[in-house]
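Whiteboard transcription, Tuesday session. T.W. wrote the structure tokens on the left side:
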């Protein structure tokens, strides 16, 4: 019988700490920014239903597999895959799943910190009252002034990465665990308060009707593909974070039930954020729910600046965005930090310094791609566009696909069953079928469409 290995980094204090940590990793700018505008673009309710089905049938099975790999080894994603490959006597090429995950996480963090810095800047602007009675043209100018100032962007990027550094450097229990148990309740409380204020100040009825009125005539194959992609990426799958957090998961916790709770919380945050944002949007003349990527930094500031109590709503909203981004970002830094500690036997603090410095340096490329170097492009892509495309359209789908295939077909059956021992035989069979067949096919479709969309427009 295999003995459950011990983690040199520590174990979460309980099942709910893992749930909050994994939810914190999953809940980020995608829930508060991308989900509302994508739902708005593709017609609301019917899209939401398809998104939730994809979460259940695609996202949850792959996320369970990633947690399983982490907990089976109690190591960083790179060494967790080494452990699984050796134990399963499989080809060494499967080891690269861990490397791709960690590399993806660091690349994503490098530009994620810059975008999170925008939210920090807007939080300060809102506190100062700079959004009061702002027009659409003025909102565009505010955003343009921000992204065209590299020193201002670097200041906020550095501040955000410093916040991440201090949490991760403190360790699994005293840093990550303690931060998550504080940040996530704050996030949920802010979300509820904003939801109540949106009901009082906005047009909640129109928002509810928009998100939950099922007009299947508006659904196209493009909408289905978008829902599949969003469902996969909103759970932070394929970037090593969930595998690393799984390594700290208590042995007695059920992977299936725990991941399902994470998926429910993640989806609930996205839907509540959608209701909250669309309540404000529908209460503000001239702003459309399909406003696109500019919804957060252009359309919403106009709405906040022109409604009663808008400043309070704006402050709460951008504070919420910062908290969500922070809880996600620390999960992107942790996998690489854990690997450095395991391999180089250096302190956690030193590992954090090395990796934070690397991420900060790489992030300068993203900063400059919005101003000084915005006209420098390769295949029509700026530095930021290239990183975003590489991670979202190539690395993460391939990583998720490889995880599904490895756990579904390659990993030793008894090793899988040890980690999933709480599942009844029929549910284990359902999960394996989804993992082996439906999830890989869906991920390959996401991958193919992402490549096609990018190069067909060049």
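and on the right, the sequence the group agreed on:
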């Amino acid at each position: 019988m295999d003995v459950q290995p011990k983690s040199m980094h520590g174990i979460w204090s309980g099942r709910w700490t893992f749930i909050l940590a994994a939810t914190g990793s999953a809940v980020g700018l995608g829930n508060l920014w991308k989900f509302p505008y994508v739902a708005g673009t593709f017609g609301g309710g019917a899209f939401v239903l398809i998104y939730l089905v994809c979460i259940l049938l695609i996202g949850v099975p792959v996320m369970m597999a990633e947690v399983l790999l982490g907990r089976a080894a109690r190591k960083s994603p790179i060494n967790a895959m080494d452990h699984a490959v050796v134990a399963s006597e499989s080809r060494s090429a499967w080891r690269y799943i861990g490397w791709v995950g960690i590399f993806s996480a660091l690349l994503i963090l490098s530009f994620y910190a810059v975008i999170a810095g925008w939210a920090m800047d807007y939080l300060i602007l809102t506190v100062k009252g700079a959004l009061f009675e702002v027009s659409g043209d003025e909102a565009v100018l505010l955003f343009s002034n921000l992204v065209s100032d590299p020193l201002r962007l670097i200041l906020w990027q550095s501040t955000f990465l410093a916040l991440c550094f201090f949490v991760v450097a403190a360790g699994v229990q005293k840093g990550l665990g303690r931060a998550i148990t504080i940040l996530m309740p704050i996030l949920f409380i802010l979300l509820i308060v904003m939801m109540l204020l949106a009901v009082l100040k906005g047009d909640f009825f129109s928002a509810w009707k928009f998100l939950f009125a099922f007009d299947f005539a508006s659904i196209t194959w493009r909408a289905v593909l978008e829902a599949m992609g969003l469902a996969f990426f909103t759970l932070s799958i394929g970037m090593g974070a969930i595998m690393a957090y799984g390594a700290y998961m208590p042995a007695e916790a059920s992977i299936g039930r725990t991941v399902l709770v994470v998926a429910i919380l993640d989806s609930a945050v996205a839907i509540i954020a959608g209701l909250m944002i669309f309540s404000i949007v529908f209460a503000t003349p001239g702003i459309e729910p399909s406003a696109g990527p500019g919804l957060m930094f252009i359309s919403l500031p106009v709405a906040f600046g022109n409604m009663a109590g808008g400043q309070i709503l704006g402050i709460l909203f951008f504070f919420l965005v910062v908290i969500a981004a922070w809880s996600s970002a620390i999960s992107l830094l942790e996998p690489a930090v854990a690997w450095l500690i395991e391999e180089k036997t250096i302190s956690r603090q030193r590992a954090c310094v090395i990796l934070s410095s690397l991420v900060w340096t790489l992030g300068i490329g993203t900063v400059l791609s919005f101003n000084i170097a915005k006209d420098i492009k390769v295949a029509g892509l700026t530095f930021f566009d290239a990183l975003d495309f590489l991670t979202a359209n190539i690395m993460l789908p391939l990583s998720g696909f490889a995880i599904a295939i490895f756990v579904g077909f390659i990993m030793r059956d008894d090793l899988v069953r040890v980690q999933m021992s709480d599942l009844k035989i029929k549910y284990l069979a359902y999960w394996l079928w989804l993992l082996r067949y439906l999830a890989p096919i869906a991920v390959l479709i996401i991958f193919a469409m992402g490549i096609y969309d990018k190069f067909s427009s060049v």
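Someone added at the bottom: Residues 15-456 form a domain with the Amino acid/polyamine transporter I fold (CATH 1.20.1740).
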